Amino acid sequence: MPDYGDKVSLVADVGGTNTRVALAEGRALRDESVRKFRNSDFESLESLLLQFEDDVGLTCDAAAVAIAGPVHDGRGTLTNLDWTVDPEALANVTGARTVSVLNDLQAQAHALLAMPRSHLTPVVTVESKETGSRRLVIGIGTGFNSALAIPNGPALMVTPSECGHVLLPAGNSEDLELAEFIVASEGFASVEDALSGRGLENIHAWHASRCGKSETRSSADVLTAIKNGDDVANRTLETFVRIMGSVCGDLALIHLPFAGIYLVGGVARAVAPYLRDFGFVESLRSKGRLSGYMERFPVCVVEDDFAALSGLAVHLDDLRRR
Amino acid sequence: MPDYGDKVSLVADVGGTNTRVALAEGRALRDESVRKFRNSDFESLESLLLQFEDDVGLTCDAAAVAIAGPVHDGRGTLTNLDWTVDPEALANVTGARTVSVLNDLQAQAHALLAMPRSHLTPVVTVESKETGSRRLVIGIGTGFNSALAIPNGPALMVTPSECGHVLLPAGNSEDLELAEFIVASEGFASVEDALSGRGLENIHAWHASRCGKSETRSSADVLTAIKNGDDVANRTLETFVRIMGSVCGDLALIHLPFAGIYLVGGVARAVAPYLRDFGFVESLRSKGRLSGYMERFPVCVVEDDFAALSGLAVHLDDLRRR
Q1: What pLDDT shows up at residue A48?
Q2: B259 and B317, same domain (yes or no)
Q3: Contact in structure between B249 and B284 (CB atoms under 8 Å)
């Protein structure tokens, strides 16, 4: 087999606010090449990449972009920006022969096999973890989404999802009251309307309204208020973690990721220290006669902020070896 | 590439009540070899297969069994029978060198690429159907489950699920009342508790209780009462089809099966003629701002009762060609 270790990839992770760009050699990011740009300073991804070319250089044989939005026929559209990410345009600006556009959760999933243990914080440990099975990445940040990673020879096959948009499932009258509170302003209550930064704000506004207050707080303020022991913020966290456990449990039953559930994203990381004390595990396992079965799914939190870039490098390396 | 068309497979589909067994040449079932046995007449799958050997013969180089229950590490357990389906025992009794145990929905999914159009009844037609994308089989019969079929070279990779056991998602107070009615007797309300033969019975009992009646009917009786225009049965069907649309829509957002949703199973086939008139499509697409996006998913009903056997033959043929 030829050695692809010295091949250079360009990888870019386009978020809602910032874009991170780096060069990678084989599967390893060149640490000193990593740059972060504000999207609002550029009118397109191409102009942003030309800035990266000036700063670092663009010589590469393969290029991949992860975007926080749906990808269709290899073409991605960003929900809150006027950017389209297009394989042809990407090939033109980089000169790469191999190009790929993925959603951000797929990119994170491609990083899993190469991820050092030091980047993972366990939430549920399973003794005889089935490392040859599927893995599920669940992202909770600006939005909510997941990606399933299926072993396929030495590589992973990663399937996309738009699971943040499913119905927010109410299992009791409290959940239904929250769902109806969200429907009143949004017209529909999805999982993402509860489990995301905006979701924290929605749940907080609902708990405030139950206490007769009409109070809106940003998700950052809610997270600060939780640390300060604020009562409404505390109830917000309780509701958030309970719904998060239930939804993660449902996704586990749907995908059967016996090699692990990997929680990623800023909001997942922010609530991670509270998961065990606020009943995440009990809620995840509360599935009637399947409750015992649920103990088979390991859960951890990914602490690596650059996992999407690393995953893109792995993905391009897999494409080269095909 | 060698020609595997003359290789003989043994395929068996173990349901809750009956087991179907056949021989296949390459991907084609030998029609005259198909046999159906009552499980209660046998103490194990092996003794049933020995009966098939007496009737038809067992000479084969590969054998596969589909079971209506979870498969773990290649080993299957039937929920309502005391049978374990074991690759070693299967190899011993058949003499096959290649053996495989799948759940019944995975077997159905393997049949999709070879399925003649005449076996499919369209429910939602999409003009520019993306035949290169994923397919999702959703089974509604004795139980509820799904299997995702992902293109992988010339074959399909099929992932298992236990999605019938997720929380029955309530989106309004009527749904929550039904969920609480089910919780009162079962302790937990899962999707399968509403969308299955038993689910029809549960929904019927709930609608009867709302009318002040304490009435239990078998699912077969409910289906007959629907045909006869019975009022409670009619409401049962309305609720069933609405929840079915919502759950299928959620599974579509989770798996993004742009090449189609394939409904299989006895209950799915029984309600198929009513789907359009009872609002299945509207319910499937009722996903807030994603409603337009939902129009991309084709839906059809699989009418072939032998699809699981055909799928096993395809699967074994794929394994031979690896």
Answers
A1: 96
A2: no
A3: yes
